[in-house]
Amino acid sequence: MIRSSQLIWPSTYMGDEGAYLQFQSPNHAMTKFVKKQGWIFISPQSPNAGDSWWSNWQGDHNEALAQAFEEMKTKYNVCRNVVFGSTLSGGSTFWARNFFPNKGGQHPAYTVMLCGGVLPSKDDRPKVITLGQNPAIVAQSSFEFVYGTKDFLYNQIQQTIELYTGAGFEVSKEEILDAEHCVPNPFSSYIIAHWTARAAALGLD
Question: Where are the alpha helices (DSSP H) in 7-153?
Answer without folding.
Answer: 29-37, 61-75, 90-94, 100-103, 125-131, 135-139
